Structure formats: structure tokens, C-alpha cells
């Protein structure tokens, strides 16, 4: 029996996933979280967690950045990424950044059970049609180098980096994290040094290489949804 954390911001999908898991996989406890920060807190409160099921698009996760941080903070914890994306580049990067499995949200419950059992047995799992993505590739060497740099950030520095990618001002970051602007600037200086950049714009450009989408992409998507709703 395994203790799981299911991290996804959509309650309906969390419930559906938990139901699917219960039909094919024996668990002793399942903890639900709806954002990256809550997931980190749950992992601290439950150090005996056997498996994390992670949604890449969850608030605060910032694409691959969250996965990289979790991999650094919990190096032995198997992480199963659950995503609606079938983009082969996303899947390849997820696996190269340390996930133990990638499970499409469209997967049949039996497939989900196979994935979890394989991971708990210490194996790497992908749907059969994506097995070729496990072969080494040189196309992501630069991203892996950047991932190693991001992994050097402290948890607080990661939060500051996340807010920078969202376009927040220093005073907004300071208010939300309950720290001074001077402390925010100190964190930014450390981030600059660790990522090998010299200014805020370069930080955002580097970080966006490890995002699934930029804030501008999300704004365009929202506008499209708003237009559809209005028509």
C-alpha cells in the first residue's frame, strides 16, 4: 500500500483520478493539494509520502520549474506527471527533468494503475507510443544545464523567480511574501548569480525556457475564452 499526494487544481479531475487509482492501485492514504505551495507543505508534513502525482499547469508550478525544485528537495520521491498535453517535447523534457512517469489525463484507469505500479517497483513508465522519447537526446542539453542552475535556488528564491516570471513588481513580491523590498533585491541578486545573468529581463527570458507557456500566452488564451463566451 502506498501513500499518495495528488496535486491538481481541478477538484473534479482530482476526484476522477483518485477514483481511477482506487480501482487499480491499493493505497493507504491519499492527500489532495491544489497549488504548488500546498504541495510543498504537504510533502513537508508527510515525509513518508511514497508517490507524488503532479499537474504541470497547477498554480505556482510554473511549468518545469516546479518539477525541478521538487526533484531537488525530494530526490528519492517518485514523481508522476499527469498532463493533458501530448506534446512530445513536453514529455521528453518532463522525463529528462526527473519524472518517473508521464501519464496523459486521457489515459484509461488500467493504464494509470500500470504506471503507478511500475513506478512503485522502481521503473520508469511512459505510454507505449512514447517509449522512443526515453532515448538520450542532445537537443535539451542547454535546458538541462539551466535546470541544474535552477535547482541551486532556495525555496524562497524560487518563489521570487516565479513572481518575476509573472511580471510582479518588487513591492508586490515583498508584500505577498511578507518580506522587505531589500530582501527581495537580495534574493534577486542571488538568482542573477546562480543563473549567470545580470538583470531582471534576462532572468525572465531564462525562466521562460522552462515554462510550458508565458503569461502573455495565458492572457491570449483567456481573451480567446472571453471572446468565445461573449459570442
Layout of helices and strands:
Blueprint: E1 2-7, H1 11-24, E2 27-33, H2 36-45, E3 51-55, H3 64-73, E4 79-83, H4 88-96, E5 101-104, H5 109-120, H6 141-150, H7 155-165, H8 170-177, H9 181-195, H10 200-208, H11 215-230
Parallel strand pairs: 1-2, 1-3, 3-4, 4-5
Helix pairs in contact: 1-5, 7-9, 7-10, 8-9
Describe the structure.
With 231 residues, the protein is of the alpha/beta class. It contains 11 helices and 5 strands, in the order E-H-E-H-E-H-E-H-E-H-H-H-H-H-H-H. The chain has helices at 11-24, 36-45, 64-73, 88-96, 109-120, 141-150, 155-165, 170-177, 181-195, 200-208, 215-230; strands spanning 2-7, 27-33, 51-55, 79-83, 101-104. It has a 5-stranded parallel beta sheet, sandwiched between helices. Helix 1 packs across helix 5 (109-120), helix 7 packs across helix 9 (181-195) and helix 8 (170-177) packs across helix 9 (181-195).
Describe what is shown at a glance.
The protein is an alpha/beta fold and 231 residues long. 54% of the residues lie in helices and 12% in strands. It contains eleven helices and five strands, in the order βαβαβαβαβααααααα.
Amino acid at each position: 500500500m502506498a501513500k499518495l499526494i495528488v496535486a491538481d487544481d481541478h477538484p473534479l479531475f482530482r476526484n476522477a483520478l483518485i477514483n481511477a487509482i482506487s480501482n487499480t492501485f491499493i493505497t493507504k492514504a491519499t492527500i489532495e493539494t491544489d497549488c504548488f505551495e500546498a504541495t510543498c507543505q504537504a510533502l513537508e508534513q508527510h515525509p513518508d509520502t511514497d508517490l507524488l502525482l503532479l499537474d504541470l499547469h497547477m498554480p505556482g508550478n510554473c511549468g518545469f520549474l516546479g518539477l525541478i525544485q521538487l526533484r531537488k528537495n525530494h530526490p528519492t520521491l517518485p514523481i508522476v506527471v499527469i498532463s493533458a498535453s501530448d506534446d512530445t517535447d513536453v514529455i521528453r523534457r518532463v522525463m529528462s527533468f526527473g519524472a518517473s512517469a508521464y501519464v496523459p489525463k486521457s489515459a484509461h484507469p488500467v493504464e494509470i494503475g500500470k504506471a503507478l505500479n511500475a513506478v512503485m517497483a522502481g521503473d520508469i513508465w511512459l505510454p507505449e507510443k512514447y517509449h522512443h522519447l526515453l532515448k538520450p537526446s542532445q537537443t535539451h542539453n542547454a535546458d538541462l544545464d539551466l535546470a541544474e542552475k535552477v535547482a541551486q535556488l532556495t525555496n524562497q528564491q524560487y518563489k521570487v523567480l516565479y513572481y518575476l516570471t509573472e511580471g510582479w513588481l518588487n513591492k508586490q513580491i515583498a508584500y505577498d511574501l511578507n518580506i522587505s523590498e531589500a530582501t527581495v533585491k537580495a534574493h534577486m541578486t542571488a538568482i542573477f548569480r546562480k543563473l549567470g545573468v545580470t538583470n531582471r529581463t534576462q532572468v525572465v527570458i531564462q525562466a521562460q525556457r522552462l515554462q510550458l507557456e508565458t503569461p502573455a500566452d495565458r492572457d491570449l488564451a483567456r481573451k480567446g475564452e472571453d471572446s468565445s463566451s461573449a459570442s
